[in-house]
Design brief:
Layout (H helix, E strand, L loop, with lengths): L3 E11 L5 E11 L3 E5 L6 H8 L7 E6 L2 E2 L4 H10 E4 L12 H11 L4 H14 L15 H13 L5 E5 L7 H16 L3 E5 L3 H7 L2 E6 L2 E6 L1 H5 L2 H6 L6 H11 L11 H11 L3
Parallel strand pairs: 3-8, 3-9, 6-7, 7-8
Antiparallel strand pairs: 1-2, 1-4, 4-5, 9-10
Length: about 280
Amino acid sequence: MTDIHLETKNLSFTYHDGTQALKNVNIQIKKGEKIAIMGPNGAGKSTLFSHFNGLTEPTSGHVEVDGDELIYERDELLKVRQKVGIVFQDPNDQLFAPTVKEDVAFGPMNLGLEYDEVKARITEALEMVGMTGFEDKTPHHLSGGQQKRVAIAGIIAMRPEIMILDEPTAGLDPEGVDKVLAILNKLNEEGISIVISSHDIEMVNQFAEKIFVLYNGEIIAEGDKHQIFSDKELLKKAHLKAPITTEILYKLKENGLNVDTEKISVDETVNEILNAKNI
């Protein structure tokens, strides 16, 4: 049994107007990983994500889920979408029912589950995202953060093995970001592989264990956050900003202090400064 959950092999996609959005993308997502795919606007992140559960069919190359190549037929895609759930960047692309509970019920109902099972999944999913008590509310009357959590609940109710989230914290205030991160970490602890895209370096720094950098439709780097965030040339090329901790360590190094610029967290950075000054 492979420990690779999802894999793309030489995945390429060209739009009808000739725009090549993805070029020979090779990515492996292993079971239980927390992965971020980073890149500037127009890099191809959303297009790549739409391939992960068959919403888009590649021009060439293919996607494999648990070692099986995606087949673009209704029944096969339904099976894949039970395993691979996608939360879109804009909750309005996902929330369309008159009430929260109907929205969350949509996926499980499509699986043909019994009413009692659907009901249990609605309760469980809303509890997990902290939205119990909102069952009869209209999704479009909720705040952006609440809508995002309901959209996540709708995917949780499908009980996927992999969750793909496109810019999960975009437009949220700091408290909203913390709530979404807490949900994603909890899901990961329960064995779900999580893949996010984000421009938010500080959030990715907190969350991801492995990072792929997508630029102009190509993967130009992959590695852990220490490797990616300490490579200033790479970040500049990909139009990404370094975390504030990395900026501080580089400044200290320029000023003659012997510090390791691959340290990322606030605690690591403080320790580097104290050690460098022999405090």
